[in-house]
Amino acid sequence: MKEQISQNFELIFVVIIIFVIMASYYYYLYREYTKKQEALTKSKIIPQCPDYWKSIGNNKCQNIKNIGRCNLGSINDMDFSDKLYAEDINKCKWSKFCEASWEGIDHLCV
């Protein structure tokens, strides 16, 4: 009887050790995954200008391909240094209104 209890205790001990090792391994994998995801979100650099526009410095952009519906005839420059465009949400609203895609910006508003 004592021998059977001893064997059961050994089996339970081995199962607990295996469980702790597996839990530690999965926790390590989860922690590495979250670190990578955090690094990816931090490393995303939002472009200064909408897609396919040319940056002409100081938050000024030039629509060289006449993209969208906010073309002003021969004047295709847009100044995003105005305090109106200080927040990305306002850039998003402008992007949606003018139908000019802007990576990292145009998904902020619906």
Automatic annotation (TrEMBL):
It comes from viral metagenome. Keywords: Membrane, Transmembrane, Transmembrane helix. The chain crosses the membrane at residues 12-30. This is CPW-WPC domain-containing protein.
